[in-house]
Amino acid sequence: MDKLEEQFADLHIVKRSSGTKESSYLLGIDTSKTLQAAKGSLVAVLCSNGSIRIHDKETLNILQEFSGHPGLLNGVRFANSCDSVYSACNDGTVKCWDARLANKKPVQLFKGYPSNIFISFDINCNDHVICAGTEKVDDDALLIFWDARINSQDLSTTKDPLGAYSETHSDDITQVCFHPSNPNMVMSGSTDGLVNVFDVSVDNEEDALVATCNSVSSVSYIGWSGKDYKQIYCMTHDEGFCWWDLNHLDTDEPITYLNIRDVREAINVKESTLDYLIGGLYHEKMDKLFLVGGTNTGKIHLMNCTTSGLIHVTSLQGGHDATVRSFCWNIQDDSLLTGGEDAQLFLWKSGAIEKTFTKKDSMKIASSVHQRVRVHSSDSYKRKKQGYKIRS
Hints:
This protein is mostly beta strands. Helices cover 5% and strands 43% of the residues. It has helices at residues 3-9, 35-39, 205-208, 263-266, and strands at 11-16, 26-31, 42-47, 51-56, 62-67, 73-78, 84-89, 93-98, 108-111, 118-123, 129-134, 143-147, 158-159, 163-165, 173-178, 185-190, 194-199, 209-214, 219-225, 231-236, 241-245, 256-260, 276-283, 288-294, 300-306, 309-316, 324-330, 335-340, 345-350.
């Protein structure tokens, strides 16, 4: 076991959120990234009731809550250069709040085209461009783009799209993920099974498409990995995993590292089972990709990805007692945040003294998460098929 794997194996719970009267599944987690945040780091948590809660990272106390009312929010992201928090909304907008202000209203609103229902989004590494993916409406599944920069000449809080990509996905776009260091590169995943990589500095959609990889299943999670982030990977809704190397696009070498139809059947988890995948974690300093999965009883599994297969590294237990839905790894202090269907938020740290908690009564919601109801306009989706070019 190497240093990083020992570090994972030594993770212990140091804090647990106090929770609220209203129990909600915790569906997404992100932490603030600014220098100011290092002195008082913030955590944003997406809840199944359609709200975002802001926590203090050290205490996990809830500082404030934002709502997408009347729409439901999907995804949560901090900006890279400030403490703005973004979330896509099924009312056809992407909303932005200032996490350090008590103002409950969005400070910016990015409007889509008529009938857009956003279910995924991301903001690029220099905070200049936002991209959101839509549910399929009529024959259209779209990637919508906005300029996120604040123009001193135009202080309007509402922004219209720069344009859209409309030709490369044929079903709901479930995932959008910008490159960690190249602001022009963005990746999208869809229930059509495709994972597409674009260079948005190119003039039109057809030429902007750098690569198309087929998972042959509905895509649930995507990410970048490898040196200079030249690799991509995805997970599927039926617990599959695919890993590709974009360095081989122009060579005769195969681009596929791994293609596992069902990870649950392909890995041996010590003294346990694997019920589902949660997401991926690329550790840049160690140049290693890990998958995070779990059990329906709250155990968390960490798995190392190699070109010959997946290797179980360690299991974390003693915290959650229901399905874990979200996590966020902080490489600065080697800590892990996890949240799930028991409505609990846990902070894990390596080498810390493990705290024992009296088990609370289960906060698991009696019914499954409320499913989105598709309400589409009866009007045909009318707009020009357009591309656009972003210049840094």
